[in-house]
Design goal:
The protein has twelve helices and two strands. With 265 residues, it is mainly α. The chain folds into two domains: 108 residues; 141 residues, no CATH class. A two-stranded antiparallel ribbon has the order 1-2. Helix 6 packs across helix 12. The chain is globular, with a radius of gyration of 20 Å.
Length: 265
């Protein structure tokens, strides 16, 4: 059976959809519209979030055709290098996300946007072992559940960096949900945690010590964002080799930030 006639598992489809529909590094809504229309692929839930929309479209098409031909073609269309001629900085981070998901299917996308076969079994077992070990250690530390959910095999398939990156993204998501704002990175921190009357306050801001704590917390979040979210440096950081010990320490910091935001007013 060739790579086209096989089918993706439900978990593989979810991972691929999540990579392609990633909030900050995936396809835009209009790009998804265009590719689905080009391939004449049904869009059963256009009002859902991008990754859920793609997941449902992929599931419906694969169930209908009983193969993954259309999904592979969607990936090829999404990863055409010429699509990123005006914003080349988007291509490599997105390719890295897609390849982490495809590794579980024994596939990868090269720099020319072509899909080819890779060794699947070894990647799966190693990634799962590393994910289980990371989750066990962090559970012992009592890490926030919103951080634990990023200890997944597809995120540590090649290195722990991506689990930390995704946990960092979840901090920004929580700030946006709690504040109702749409900014990202340092601008989001400035708009939510800074100023004399911040939108999100981690204490009563009545004393100099409390105001200093608020300012220090804002700087901590900014530092985490600056370390992992700076798009101009992201391409190089995709290759940053991170140890499990460093990942655990950084995910513990993310856990602290989550708990303080949860308790904030």
């Amino acid at each position: 059976m060739n790579i086209v006639e096989k089918q993706f598992s439900q978990s593989e489809l979810e991972a691929i959809a999540a990579a392609l529909g990633d909030t900050s590094e995936g396809l835009t809504g209009s790009e998804i519209d265009h590719i689905l229309a080009t391939l004449k692929m049904a869009d059963p839930n256009p009002d859902m979030t991008k990754w859920k929309r793609l997941h449902n479209a992929f599931v419906e098409r694969q169930n209908y055709s009983q193969n993954r031909r259309a999904i592979l073609e969607f990936i090829r269309q999404a990863m055409k290098p010429e699509r990123y001629a005006k914003c080349p900085e988007r291509f490599e981070p997105m390719r890295a996300n897609v390849n982490r998901a495809l590794a579980f299917s024994g596939l990868a996308v090269n720099a020319a946007g072509q899909i080819y076969a890779v060794d699947r079994a070894q990647t799966l077992s190693e990634a799962q072992r590393r994910a289980d070990e990371l989750r066990a250690d962090l559970t012992t530390r009592g890490v926030h559940p919103d951080v634990l959910r990023f200890c997944r095999a597809e995120l540590v398939a090649d290195n722990y960096f991506h689990a930390v990156l995704e946990a960092t993204k979840s901090i920004a998501d929580k700030l946006r949900v709690k504040s109702g704002l749409s900014e990202d990175g340092a601008k989001l921190v400035d708009a939510t945690l800074c100023g004399s009357a911040p939108r999100i306050a981690i204490n009563d801001l009545l004393t100099d010590s409390q105001r200093s704590e608020q300012s220090g917390f804002a700087n901590l979040v900014k530092g985490v964002f600056g370390m992992f979210r700076n798009p101009t440096a992201h391409e190089a950081r995709v290759l940053w080799r991170m140890s499990k010990e460093d990942a655990e320490d950084l995910l513990s910091i993310a856990s602290l930030i989550h708990r303080r935001i949860d308790a904030a007013r």
